[in-house]
Design brief:
The complex is a heterodimer of chains A (164) and B (1263). With 164 residues, chain A is an alpha+beta fold. Chain A contains five helices and six strands; from the N terminus they run E-E-H-E-E-E-E-H-H-H-H. The radius of gyration of chain A is 16 Å and the shape is globular. Chain A starts with 6 loop residues before the first strand and ends with a helix. The model of chain A has no long low-confidence stretch (mean pLDDT 80). The chains are: A alpha+beta (164), B alpha+beta (1263). Chain A: Belongs to the TRAPP small subunits family. Sedlin subfamily.
């Protein structure tokens, strides 16, 4: 295990590039908007990576380091094209891809479980399983468990001892 | 980069002084008459151009070509003084360079480190090589016609003159040589001579003379050049530099060596740096040892860079940088905020840039970025100690400059050779590959590689320069923020005066212009590097640019940016980002006084629920009302349309139809719900009317606002009934517009529900296309179109149906909510009944009855199509026939005429089933069409509603199994001919009509009725088709047809036998079966259940193929069936050789056992028959007298063919074996079958009864 990573923000963006949930953990809370912008601009790099991956027939979900600002931004795209973006605090250490992938997989699982919530469809008119607004709604204020899961993952990342 | 001395940043290259290429400024008086230019002037000009243009001073120049930095100088240029003797104490003070900190007149005196002027000295004042261009003297051509003595005189004159001129030239060069030797600079002379001169044999001698006289080096010191073309000049310049490159390197190496010596002496502490007497007192301390280390290392780095040794240079620069850090680490060595401190900082920054650059030359991107970040980090730490930490604008200014310089460096690199690495993740290598790497020889390298595969350090991931410009811009924004704060505190504490000298300067800085410039550069680079068509990164930077424009008061520019950015943010629903954008945009619009835009933005902000002021959530609405009340639109005549469908709509709207489909003339209830969001205050917006637009020709319904009496208008749900809205037929005039009144005010969370029903008299699709809210205030008219179904992001609108207003109750709508209603024609009530008696018999015309009844109240025109599906069974064929139309697949458009209500028509479809049994599939389509315009009464005015009568179709699919009515089975028995066939030699066999008797066949045919319904057989006969090999001799059916003609019911069987005589052809040698010589033909009618007989059908059953048995050698035993005791009877044995080629040697043995056999025999007991040729037979007779009664077995007869024994003896070497005394093989030959002709009529296929030793026939002996 490398040095602990500090997770500053997590963003889920839908296949149509609509934001699903953006969760920030950095200490000054007013930065929240900044991570919206970071998530949005990351979509460009994700697009680029996907095009490149399509050319090389690569099938991995992990898109690697997207860019570095005052945080390091990593990207991941699920098979349903939901993009997960995380911002890690910069530290002068090698960030192991395996660690980042672990975080992404945990986040992906959290999202999957939240979307599988049957109550999400309680008042939905159509029976369309892949209804886009539904997938976006999973990040809505109403669904606290999703946020809670994400927060738990963040806690586990920042304090690796607790996770073990 | 402009903020740093260019000398400290530029890439250094060996310096070459070039003298003697001054072109005399063209004299205007001379230039015009002589167009012919002096070739040497052209040559000089070209040389100048070639030398100057080959290299530009730049920061990024990684190429290692041997190219000099050429500096054009005067011929008699003077070098700066090498060492300056101090004005006093000349005796014992060592001499120092005028730039040395030890020289009081130096700018570095007494404690400076390195000044840009030192680099400038080495790049512009002192060369490493000196190239001197000179014309060699050329004596004029001798006059053409000279006599001997005159010629000799001329030559003598010429030689003397040349010698004199050469001596002068040599002296001039020698003088130059002296000055260059002083500094061990290589001097090279290039003598320019005309082409003619080059061929002069005396030239070599003259050149040698000049070189000797002037003291030039023997090597690469003297060139001769004649006026040549441009290309050749390039070659010359290249070869000149090639030749001089090594001396240049040597020159810089010597410098390095000298500096290293000094440094070593210095570090060993052997040299005591004298304290200048002037240094005493208040003046600052002289340069400390650390400072000298910096100087020496820096100089060595520069000299290495001159030599192009990047790695050495990097090493020295790093040492310099380390030494500098040591100095900065102590405020004692380098007191902050002094001049030297500032110089040192600039030097450190520049060295840092050089280190980064050298790493990048070597493609070590991570190292470069690591150094860059480390530099910023270290100096940030130091800055804190110096009191210019993060809270000061100085710090941010410096940091911004670092980012910017780095960005500029990358950008310059990008123009030529630098490539920014991509940080795509590498796929994890397989375990085998890792193991192979671990076992490999270069383990360390592999480990490093493996480590890199694990992941990257984000701080070492180099990105394109746009990012660094962006960060520089952000730092500048922070700088401005700190500056404004400082300004504020200055204003507050006005008496204390200015705090720092830098502050005064800072006031002159236009921060926003810098920010804008940096953002713009970042934007351009992002744009260049972006592969995504969306350009979200650019949008983000554009947003920053727009904010900067706003801050600097260029509102119109900001608005243009906002407009573009908002499009993408709206489309992708990033509301969190859209809200601050809208606020700033609105502020811009206010500043610009663009009222339409303000109104538009305020409405959009309402839609997004933007709250400008946290304390006053209604401020947006109030702002909007204030704008509407206080201003007038630019064009009051025209209403302002604010379409918010792309962004968030003002009101959530849902439109639901109760049923998705209705018939013409009916109507479907609908509800349109307009709900205000629960968080946004908009109850005071003065909406005046709401238009509901339906599709098609329906007029819009207008709902006017009416203020309700009293305060009861605050009900959360308001229901307005619009009544029944019926789409008129196009021929009717437009129906009068419906006007309804409602309270068009939406308190938070309240809803307006419009109910009604919608229908039409023609087929169409009805829906609500658009809702338009009109807002009126003073001269403002604003139209807000709304989609019939839309909701703000994040809220899923559950479809519900208002069932009661008081109390408010909604029915949730399950399943799909219908947003449109389809009006269809009423279905035609046509009953189609199909009757038939399955299964169909093969060969029959099978009737299917269609019974069509019009149960509707309209007249219907009925047309029938029948499709017969093809059947995938071999030989199967069938066709259909309806109303005279025949087809094997499709009968189309059989018109059955018009059926009045209640009328009924019956049609019979005939299906003929032929070939093979199998299921036949029929699709019957009955199309009905209303006959006339029952609703509309005139021809249609528009094509899209043209009335052609509506059609409907009812479909029936029939699967009709088919079976055979009669099944016929045959059994065949064969009899051998009793007669002897004619011999081979009989001439009659050559007759044309000769046919050899091959016995006869008896065919028994059993015909059974197996269908479900009986049949009535009307005729039954055997139709003969006699062939050459088989002829029907007689048949029972010929005799008694009558007994067949009756009604056959299921399971009935009738049998017929027919006798067929067979014959054989000579050439009929193969085993092909004989085709049956006829067929039975049975004509029958089906017996319908109602007793009616169906159509006449004919079934044919061909006689089977015949395969008479083929014998080779056979014995036929003819015995009587009965005998009388003691009366003799004769039995005959006929041995027949029916083989085609081989003869037969037959031995007959008649074994009579006197004890058991009840006969007395007269005849041959054992004997050999004559040789039987093929086709021959031999008949022998025994007379038997029975002596017992009852079934008496006939005695045992054995017939043996000896021929195989003889064959065996002949064909092998048995003859020799016999001669040798061996026994011949004990074979008695082949036993021949004996057939009892009484039982000979064998059933086909089974073995004939053989009267052999085990199963012998019997004779009934009667007393």
């Amino acid at each position: 295990m490398g040095p602990p990573l500090r997770l500053n923000a997590v963003a889920f963006v839908s296949a149509q590039n609509h934001p699903i949930l953006i969760r920030t953990f950095s200490q000054p809370k007013q930065d929240e908007l900044k991570y919206h912008y970071i998530a949005h601009t990351s979509l460009d790099v994700i697009d680029e990576r996907i095009t490149a991956a399509g050319a090389t027939k690569s099938t991995g979900c992990y898109l690697g380091l997207l860019y570095v600002e005052d945080v390091a931004v990593y990207g991941f795209m699920t098979p349903t094209k939901v993009k997960i973006i995380i911002a890690l605090e910069l530290s002068d250490n090698v960030v192991r891809d395996a660690d980042v992938i672990t975080i992404f997989k945990a986040l992906h699982t959290a999202y999957r479980r939240s979307v599988a919530n049957p109550f999400l469809r309680l008042n939905v008119p159509s029976d369309n399983v892949t209804d886009h607004s539904l997938l976006v709604a999973a990040g809505g204020q109403k669904w606290k468990l999703f946020r809670q899961r994400i927060d738990e993952i963040c806690g586990a990342v920042t304090l690796p001892g607790a996770a073990a | 980069m402009n903020s740093y001395p260019p000398e400290l940043l530029a890439q250094l290259a060996p310096v070459m002084f070039v003298a003697g290429l001054d072109v005399p400024s063209p004299n205007p008086q001379e230039a015009t008459p002589s167009r012919q230019q002096d070739p040497f002037a052209v040559l000089k000009q070209r040389l100048r151009d070639a030398l100057i243009s080959q290299r530009k001073v730049a920061i990024w120049q990684p190429e290692k070509a041997k190219i000099f930095q050429a500096v054009l100088v005067d011929v008699d240029v003077r070098f700066p003084p090498r060492k300056l003797a101090p004005p006093e104490d000349q005796q014992y003070q060592p001499l120092h360079s005028p730039l040395s900190p030890l020289t009081p007149s130096s700018p570095l005196y007494p404690d400076g480190l390195i000044a840009p002027i030192w680099i400038r000295k080495h790049t512009t004042l002192v060369p490493s090589v000196f190239v001197l261009f000179k014309r060699i003297y050329e004596h004029p051509q001798p006059p053409p016609n000279q006599t001997g003595t005159a010629h000799a005189d001329f030559d003598r004159d010429r030689e003397a003159e040349e010698r004199r001129r050469d001596t002068e030239l040599a002296a001039e060069i020698a003088q130059r040589k002296r000055s260059t030797n002083e500094r061990s600079i290589k001097l090279t002379a290039v003598l320019m001579a005309s082409r003619r001169m080059l061929d002069d044999p005396a030239l070599d001698a003259r050149l040698t003379f000049i070189r000797r006289q002037s003291g030039l080096d023997p090597r690469a010191a003297l060139f001769v050049l004649s006026p040549v073309t441009q290309a050749e000049i390039g070659d010359f310049v290249r070869s000149l530099q090639e030749a001089l490159y090594e001396p240049a390197l040597e020159y810089y190496t010597n410098h390095s060596k000298r500096v290293r010596r000094k440094r070593n002496k210095h570090s060993q502490g052997t040299v005591h740096i004298p304290v200048s007497p002037l240094g005493a007192g208040n003046s600052p301390r002289p340069l400390r040892p650390e400072g000298w280390t910096v100087r020496y290392e820096y100089k060595m780095a520069c000299f290495a860079e001159f030599r192009g040794e990047d790695e050495v240079a990097l090493k020295h620069y790093q040492d310099t940088y380390a030494a500098l850090l040591v100095m900065f680490g102590s405020t004692a060595i380098l007191p902050p905020r002094t001049k030297r401190w500032a110089e040192g900082k600039v030097l450190a920054d520049c060295i840092s840039v050089k280190i980064c650059k050298l790493y990048l030359y070597n493609k070590e991107h991570a190292m470069a970025l690591a150094h860059h970040s480390a530099h910023m980090r270290k100096f940030s730490d130091l800055s804190r100690g110096w009191g210019i930490g993060e809270e000061t604008f100085e710090f941010w200014s410096w940091l911004s400059r670092q980012h910017r310089v780095f960005a500029e460096l990358l950008e310059q690199g990008n123009w030529s050779t630098l490539e920014i690495p991509k940080h795509t993740p590498v796929p994890a290598p397989s375990a085998a590959k890792l193991a192979a790497q671990a076992a490999g020889p270069q383990r360390n390298a592999m480990e490093a590689e493996a480590l890199r595969l694990l992941g990257i350090n984000p701080t070492h991931a180099l990105q394109h320069p746009g990012f660094y410009y962006y960060m520089a811009a952000q730092c500048t924004e922070s700088r401005r923020e700190r500056f404004l704060r400082a300004l504020e505190s200055e204003v507050r504490s006005i008496h204390h005066g200015s705090l720092s000298p830098g502050f005064a300067n800072e006031k002159k800085v236009d921060h926003l212009a810098i920010v804008l410039e940096l953002y713009t550069r970042a934007y351009e680079i992002f744009k260049k590097n972006s592969a995504s068509p969306q350009g979200r990164q650019q949008l983000w930077i554009a947003y920053r640019i727009a904010q900067t424009y706003y801050a600097s008061g260029k509102f119109d520019m900001a608005v243009r940016f906002f407009e573009r950015i908002a499009k993408t943010y709206r489309r992708e629903k990033w509301e969190a980002m859209l809200r601050p954008l809208l606020s700033t945009w609105y502020a811009c619009a206010q500043q610009l006084g663009d009222m339409e835009l303000s109104v538009q933005l305020l409405l959009e902000m309402l839609g997004h629920g933007v709250v400008v002021d946290q304390e006053d959530p209604e401020s947006v609405q109030e702002d909007l009302l204030a704008v509407l009340k206080s201003t007038v639109p630019s064009n009051p005549e025209q209403s302002l349309v604010v379409d918010l469908t792309e962004s968030g709509p003002l009101l959530d709207s849902t439109t639901i139809f109760w049923t998705p489909t209705i018939s013409v003339g009916e109507s479907s209830a609908f509800q349109i719900t307009l709900t205000a969001p629960p968080t946004v205050q908009m109850s005071d917006l003065p909406f005046s009317s709401l238009h509901v637009h339906f599709g098609g020709d329906l007029p819009p319904v207008v709902i006017e606002h009416s203020q309700p009496e009293g305060d009861e208008g605050t009900a959360s749900v308001q229901r307005i009934d619009l009544g029944r809205i019926h789409a008129p037929h196009p021929n009717d005039g437009p129906s009068p517009p419906t006007d309804v009144q409602a309270n068009l005010r939406w308190p938070t969370g309240s809803s307006l529900v419009l109910t009604g029903s919608l229908g039409a008299d023609f087929t169409t699709i009805l829906m609500v296309t658009k809702l338009v809210l009109t807002l009126k205030q003073n001269s403002w008219t604003i139209e807000l179109p709304l989609q019939p179904n839309s909701s703000r992001t994040g809220s899923i609108c559950r479809p519900q149906w208002l069932s009661s207003v008081d109390p408010v109750r909604f029915l949730p709508i399950r399943g799909e909510a219908h947003s449109s209603v389809t009006v269809q024609n009423r279905p035609h009530r046509v009953s189609v009944a199909v009757a038939h008696n399955s299964p169909a018999y093969l060969g029959e015309d099978y009737p299917v009855t269609l019974d069509i009844t019009n149960l509707d109240d309209r007249e219907l025109n009925v047309v029938v199509d029948v499709l017969l599906h093809p059947l995938e069974v071999e030989h199967a064929s069938s066709d259909i026939s309806l109303d005279g139309q025949n087809s094997t697949s499709l009968v189309k458009g059989v018109a059955l005429g018009t059926l009045v209500p209640g009328a009924n028509i019956t049609k019979t479809l005939i299906l003929s089933v032929k070939g093979a049994i199998g299921d036949r599939t029929l699709d019957i389509s009955v199309q009905s069409r209303t006959t006339g315009p029952s609703v509309a009464n005139a021809s249609p005015p528009s094509p899209n509603t043209s009335f052609t009568g509506d059609t409907a179709e009812s479909l029936r699919t029939l699967v009709i199994p088919s079976v055979e009515a009669i099944k016929a089975e045959h059994t065949v028995r064969y009899k051998r001919p009793a007669k002897l066939s004619r011999g081979l030699g009989d001439l009659a066999t050559f007759e044309a009509d000769y046919s050899e008797d091959a016995g006869e066949a008896v065919v028994s045919t059993t015909m059974a009725c197996i269908g479900q319904s009986g049949i009535s057989v009307e005729s039954a006969k055997l139709v003969r088709e006699d062939g050459t090999r088989a002829k029907v001799r007689s048949s029972f059916i010929d005799v008694d047809e009558e007994s067949f003609l009756s009604e056959w019911l299921t399971g009935d069987e009738f049998c017929d036998q027919c006798l067929i005589s067979l014959s054989r052809d000579e050439d009929d040698t193969d085993d092909s079966p004989i085709p049956g010589p006829g067929h039975y033909e049975v004509s029958w009618r089906r017996l319908q259940p109602d007793g009616v007989k169906g159509s006449l059908s004919v079934s044919r059953f061909p006689l089977p193929q015949l395969r008479p048995p083929k014998d080779g050698l056979i014995a036929l035993l003819d015995i009587p069936s009965t005998a009388k005791l003691h009366s003799p009877i004769a039995i005959h044995l006929t041995v027949r050789n029916q083989r085609l080629v081989r003869s037969a040697n037959v031995v007959v043995q008649f074994d009579l056992d006197p004890l058991t056999d009840g006969f007395v025999v007269a005849g041959l007991r054992q004997g050999r028959l004559p040789v039987l040729l093929p086709g021959a037979e031999y008949r022998m007779t025994w007379n038997l007298i029975p002596v017992e009664c009852g079934y008496v077995q006939i005695p045992k007869i054995k017939v043996t063919d000896r021929r195989p024994v003889i064959d065996a003896q002949l064909s092998s070497t048995n003859a020799a074996a016999i001669a040798a005394g061996g026994r011949p093989p004990q074979t008695d030959g082949e036993e021949v079958k004996i057939v009892d002709v009484r039982a000979e009529a064998v059933v086909e296929g089974s073995e004939p009864v053989v009267a052999d030793s085990t199963r012998r026939g019997t004779i009934l002996v009667l007393p």
